[in-house]
Amino acid sequence: MNKSNKGVAIEELKEKLSDSNFFYITDSSSLTVERINNLRRICFDKGVEMKVVKNTLLRKAMESFGDERGYAGLYEALHGPTAIMFTETASVPAKIIKEFRKDETRPLIKAAYIDSAIYLGDHMIEDLVNLKSKEQLIGEIITILQSPAKNVISALKSGGSTIAGLVKALEERAAK
């Protein structure tokens, strides 16, 4: 790869990094071409873009952001064969990898960047699989906020019918 091609590759990576708040750095070495193509197809179907990258070019692209995005913690994962997975939903690549590894030993997660949080190592896969999307979190918050109001309304409704029943029973007794 000549110098101008490297510059273009770095610019492409910088653009991808700036557009994505979630990406995974993985190692899919030792997979056959057929298995890599299957993994790419699964990724494509789930909205994940997978690219094989050179560590030095990825590091240069990350370094271009300075401390702004906090990529420095990822540098230690940039060794050996590297593929990067860009996604819109934080947990999707981890779910793909976990499912894919039922039949394979790879890909391994070297690191993940999730909205400025860094997860290092393949042992973090369960944490990454269990991450909730923004929509799921908003839904849970709304449910939590609605719960006390529903309880109060329910209590008032049941309490009102109980009081009305008591008053009616007392009136009937007084009438006898």
Total of helices = 6
Radius of gyration: 27 Å
**What does the main sheet amount to?**
5 strands, antiparallel
CATH architecture of the largest domain: 2-Layer Sandwich
CATH topology of the largest domain: Alpha-Beta Plaits
Give the helices and strands as they follow along the chain: HEHEHEHEEHH
CATH class of the largest domain: Alpha Beta
Oligomer: single chain
User: How large is the share of residues in beta strands?
Assistant: 15-25%
Nearest-integer average pLDDT: 87
Helix fraction by DSSP (H/I, runs of at least 4) = 40-55%
CATH superfamily (homologous) name of the largest domain: Ribosomal protein L10, N-terminal RNA-binding domain
C-alpha geometry: elongated
From the structure above, extract its key features.
Alpha-Beta Plaits, 6 helices, alpha+beta, 2 domains
In words, what does this structure look like?
The chain is of the alpha+beta class. It contains six helices and five strands. The protein has a five-stranded antiparallel β-sheet. The model has no long low-confidence stretch (mean pLDDT 87).
Q: Which SSEs are present, and which pair or pack?
A:
Elements: H1 3-19, E1 22-27, H2 33-45, E2 49-53, H3 55-63, E3 82-87, H4 92-100, E4 108-114, E5 117-120, H5 125-129, H6 134-175
Antiparallel strand pairs: 1-3, 1-4, 2-3, 4-5
